[in-house]
Amino acid sequence: MTPASHVVISAATGGIFLYSTHSWAGAVACFFSGIFIDLDHHLDFYLEKGKIPLRYSELLYFCEKEKTGKLYLFFHSYELLALFWLLIMFLHLGYFWSGLALGLTTHLIADQIFNPLKPLGYFLIYRIRNDFDKAKIFVDDFYHSLK
Prior knowledge:
By secondary structure, the protein is an all-alpha fold. It has one domain. 69% of the residues lie in helices and 0% in strands. The chain has nine helices and no strands. The radius of gyration is 16 Å and the shape is globular. The mean pLDDT is 95.
């Protein structure tokens, strides 16, 4: 998904959260977490290239066009998200933390729906078992269209 799409979805989710809870802190956390979860794409780039992408176009090419390399996406993980929600529930954390988790959840679900990963692609265990190999994580048609 494009960053602009995530901004729109995060703004809507944050707005609904604010309306439901009247928590500005939670709504802001929801908004920003729904966008900045994508920082793990920068980490992937660094792990593969040994440098930080200086231009957005460089990162975009790496994420959407480049066939070689690994797809780690450590923050895009249902297992870690479930653990986070459990911590929020068992520790009775407040609206800030719930908003943060809701932003992450919304982002991950949107990615699951719109991005060309296999159905299990957003499970960290699946990516580990497949050695983070793009060929095994992306949908086959999409992977074969890459350069």
